[in-house]
């Protein structure tokens, strides 16, 4: 009886949801994967990007494929255009709606996975992720705590998980991790806790306070139930040309940070996917994290932000084609991390300065972390996959992707520990690219 009641209630709720806001339809939309290695093709795509003319799933790049979402009416002219500029391409996704529906059916069919229990076999709703964070703090009160750092535009809580073991000190080094719409960041948090509790391996949590913000944009995350490809926040709506050209919601949270704001690779059009917002840090989600990180800027030694997708590890600066003064230090730690990552499942990443290997994009969080908060080691991971799904990454890749990403994060944390040690205690400088034995041993699996 109780079960039937609950079931009908769920049905009713989903019915209301369906009627209230029908899902955005991408029938006939294609994703083209373009090879922009040649200068002519790269420059042409760069101009389209600057003029904010197409929906780029990945910014124009010479080293990674450039993927663009194309509406049905534009497919033919755009293909002709690509032939004209001599850019080879393939059709990566023939019908975006098909992929979305397929993923949704799989999700609905696996109802046993949709309990309020957290797991890494499916993408979870916000409530589940937040519930999971709170339950960790209850279960491991001496190791885990949850900070409520602010509220989103639509009033959802912004939460940061803190994981730490051993001595509590105000000057203990810290690592910051945030993720937008990715289960991988929660996977890393879970792995740290599992290592500490199940395998009694507390090295990394003894050495660092870990601050983890798994859902940086909760409104956008929940709105993907309506528009699977939504990536902005949900503030607004704001008018375009006084409203003559319509009204649009949302700011690109990775163009809104208060450093070199509104520069290259951003848009002032509120309807754009790369809209930088009405002013720097206009979004409460960005503001809250800026404040939280600034309060701990001397403590935080490593700042990592996770996005999809391209399999690239990006170093500052992203706002223009300039390298940081300590580019070589960041590159050394980064190169080793992606080698460690590759050793887990063979996934290949490229590392480099953002604006050199992609086109410039100002207002990103890793630029802000380095430029405004002064955190030396700040990176952005563009995760899996460069395979054939793009944003619609199949849920069965969450765990392998989590495993390899954890290995990379661990490698960085280890290297930086060495770097921040007082000089007299330092052992030899880590060798270029070598995966250390210590790094291998840290990741303990059950026998
Ligand atoms: C892209 O094109 C260049 C030549 O224009 C070629 O050397 C390269 O292999 C191509 N890359 C891919 C991934 O197809
Ligand atoms: C979030 O909003 C609630 C009211 O809905 C308020 O009580 C709380 O103080 C806000 N939290 C923060 C951190 O701003």
Automatic annotation (TrEMBL):
What UniProt keywords apply to this chain's record, in alphabetical order?
A: Carboxypeptidase, Disulfide bond, Hydrolase, Metal-binding, Metalloprotease, Protease, Signal, Zinc
Q: Does the keyword Plastid apply?
A: no
Record has tRNA processing as a keyword: no
Name the domain of life this protein comes from. Answer: Eukaryota
**Which residue intervals define the domain Peptidase M14 in the entry?**
122-416
* PROSITE patterns attached to this UniProt entry: CARBOXYPEPT_ZN_2 (PS00133), PEPTIDASE_M14 (PS52035)
- Report the CDD domains cross-referenced here: M14_CP_A-B_like
Which family does the similarity line name?
A: Belongs to the peptidase M14 family.
Stated name of the protein: Peptidase M14 domain-containing protein
Q: Which organism is it from?
A: Orchesella dallaii
């Amino acid at each position: 009886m109780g079960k039937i009641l609950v079931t009908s209630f769920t049905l009713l709720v989903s019915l209301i949801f369906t009627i209230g806001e029908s899902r955005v339809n991408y029938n006939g939309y294609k994703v083209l994967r373009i090879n922009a290695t040649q200068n002519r093709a790269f420059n042409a795509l760069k101009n389209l990007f600057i003029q904010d003319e197409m929906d780029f799933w990945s910014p124009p790049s010479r080293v990674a494929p450039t993927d663009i979402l194309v509406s049905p009416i534009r497919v033919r002219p755009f293909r002709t255009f690509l032939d004209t500029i001599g850019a080879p391409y393939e059709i990566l996704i023939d019908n975006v709606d098909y992929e979305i529906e397929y993923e949704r059916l799989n999700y609905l069919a696996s109802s046993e996975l949709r309990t309020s229990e957290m797991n890494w076999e499916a993408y979870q709703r916000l409530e589940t992720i937040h519930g999971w964070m709170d339950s960790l703090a209850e279960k491991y009160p001496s190791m885990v705590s949850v900070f409520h750092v602010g509220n989103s535009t639509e009033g959802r809580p912004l939460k940061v998980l803190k994981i730490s073991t051993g001595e509590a000190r105000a000057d203990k080094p810290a690592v910051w991790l945030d993720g937008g719409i990715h289960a991988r960041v929660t996977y890393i948090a879970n792995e740290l806790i599992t290592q500490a509790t199940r395998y009694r391996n507390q090295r990394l949590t003894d050495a660092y306070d870990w601050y983890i913000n798994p859902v940086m944009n909760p409104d956008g995350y929940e709105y993907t139930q309506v528009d699977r490809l939504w990536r902005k926040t949900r503030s607004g709506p704001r008018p375009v040309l006084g409203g003559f050209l319509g009204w649009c919601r949302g700011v690109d949270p990775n163009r809104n940070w208060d450093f070199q704001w509104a520069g290259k690779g951003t848009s002032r059009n509120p309807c754009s996917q790369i809209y930088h917002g009405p002013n720097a840090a206009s979004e409460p989600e960005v503001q809250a994290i800026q404040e939280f990180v600034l309060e701990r800027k001397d403590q935080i030694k490593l700042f990592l932000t996770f996005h999809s997708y391209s399999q690239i590890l990006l170093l500052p600066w992203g706002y223009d084609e300039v390298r940081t003064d300590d580019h070589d230090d960041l590159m050394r730690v980064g190169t080793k991390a992606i080698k460690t990552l590759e050793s887990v499942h063979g996934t290949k990443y490229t590392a480099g300065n953002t604006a050199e290997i992609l086109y410039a994009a100002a207002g990103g969080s890793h630029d802000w972390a380095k430029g405004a908060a002064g955190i030396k080691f700040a990176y952005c991971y563009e995760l899996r996959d460069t395979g054939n799904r793009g944003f619609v990454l199949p849920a069965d890749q969450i765990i392998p992707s989590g495993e390899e990403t954890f290995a990379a994060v661990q490698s960085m944390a280890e290297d930086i520990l060495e770097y921040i040690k007082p000089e007299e205690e330092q052992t030899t400088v880590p060798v270029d690219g070598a995966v250390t034995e210590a790094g291998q041993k840290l990741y303990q699996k059950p026998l």
